[in-house]
Amino acid sequence: SLHDALPIYSFLLFLFLFKDHLHWITIDFNKLVTVTGIKIQFQGGYGCKKIQVQFIDNHQTVNETSYPQDSNILQQFNYNDHQAKSLKLIFTENSDMFGRLIIYHLDVFGS
Predict the structure, then answer these.
(1) Burial of 70 by CB count in 10 Å (0-12 exposed, 13-18 middle, 19+ buried)?
(2) Among residues 35, 30, 26, which one has the least CA distance to residue 111?
(3) Residue 109's closest CA among 35, 26, 17?
(4) Cys bridge to 90: 24, 71, 103, 110, which one at CB 3.0-4.6 A?
């Protein structure tokens, strides 16, 4: 359960203020890890409706899609245990009419 787990990556405050651009975050773990989930918190009104999650290793990329709420609550998304050397989160369908995105908190869980 992510409720009891410690994150393998944690960051506070990302700001994306570019209109009509695709926003993404790439996290390089520098080793092969197992990713089991993320917790993310947006500024209400400056979030997105869809996150394309890419689990990337040397040989393949596995894609999953998450659908966050337009809210400032900390949201949790669980995934199958995916092996990855890096993780790319692509944020689409921004809720702000100017395409701005504000992320207050991001945790990646796994081992």
Answers:
(1) middle
(2) 35
(3) 35
(4) 24
Q: Which two tokens stand for residue 41?
A: 């918190």
Q: What gap in Å lies between CA 24 and CA 33, rounded to an integer?
A: 20
Cβ count near 108 (within 10 Å): 21
- pTM over cut 0.85: yes
Token pair recorded at residue 53? 């999650």
Decide: 8 and 106 in contact? Cβ < 8 Å: no
8 Å CB contact between 72 and 43: yes
Token representation of residue 24:
């993404």
23 CB-side CA count, 13 A:
25
Three-state DSSP at 10 gives strand
